[in-house]
Each structure stands twice: as structure tokens, then as C-alpha cells.
Amino acid sequence: MLQIANKKVVSIHYTLTNNEGDVIDSSIDDEPLSYLHGAGNIVPGLETALLGKSVGDSLQVTVQPEDAYGERHDEMIQVVPREMFQGVEEIQPGMQFQAEAPDGGVQVIIVAAVADNEITVDANHPLAGEVLNFDVSVEAVREPTPEELDHGHVH
Questions:
Q1: For residue range 101-155, what is the model confidence (pLDDT) as tens digits?
Q2: DSSP 8-state class, residue 31
């Protein structure tokens, strides 16, 4: 039986809760989540906990922020002029937009507050600073296809 290791395709069912017990995400009523182990497709703390597990294993994993989405950073919260949202009729807290990241990539920003001509945006990941609790069951482990290995994710 294959064990979870780097460069294996792993399928898991999971329920993710915060420390208050609120369900943040779950695969239970859907297809299992499939990922390429060791490719950074899931949070590092969960990937580490799954190493060496096999089909049929179940585990509860608590992941601290530094092994998940990092701590919250106040400097990632900015007030920007409304003009930066040209073409958007109504801007409301909680809306998500894609913006250019400092490194030229894409980052998601979330509208935190709306004033007359100023919009407060937060570029922290929504789960930054959160302790994540995973209830996981391993559903499948298989060898990746050459294309999956080449692309670094499951197809």
C-alpha cells in the first residue's frame, strides 16, 4: 500500500474549523481534495502531518498560523482612493478584488471598510493569524502522471 510521500497524488476528505468550532471549509459533500504532495498545494502544517499516512488513515491536525497562512500584518491594510475602483458601482466590505502584488504577481485584496471617498483594503489572507483545525481522512494515494509532475499540481 502506498504511503503519502513527496511526488505522490493524495486525495483527502477534510473538514476545516477555527478554534471556535465554526466550519470554514469542508469536502464532505463534494469530491475529495486531490493534491500533489510536496508541491506546496496545501498548507505546510497539514502536508507535514500527512507524510507517511496511508489510505484509510484518519487524523486531527491543529496547524498554527506560521504553518498555514501566516500571521496578520497591519502594513497589508491600506486606505486607497475610491477612484482605484473605477467601473465598480457599489463597493461593500467583504468584496474581494485581484490586484497586482509587489512582486508583479496577483494578490487578492478584501474590502475592509468603505468611507465616502476612501476604501480600506486588506491584502492579508482571510485565514491569516488563524489556528486551523483539520479533521482529515486519506481516501487515495497514487503515482502522478508525467504531466502532473511537470505542472506541479493534479489534473
A1: 778 888 889 999 999 899 999 999 999 999 999 999 999 999 999 999 999 999 8
A2: P
What are the distances in angstroms from CA 98 to CA 57, 59, 80, 92?
38, 35, 14, 15
Place of cell 511526488: 7
- Beta strands at 58-63 and 106-114: parallel, antiparallel or unpaired: unpaired
d(CA 58, CA 121) in angstroms, rounded, equals 39
The structural domains of the chain, ordered by start, are 9-69+128-151 (3.10.50.40), 74-122 (2.40.10.330)
pLDDT band at 52 (very low <50, low <70, confident <90, very high): very high
CA atoms within 13 A on the CB side of 142: 12
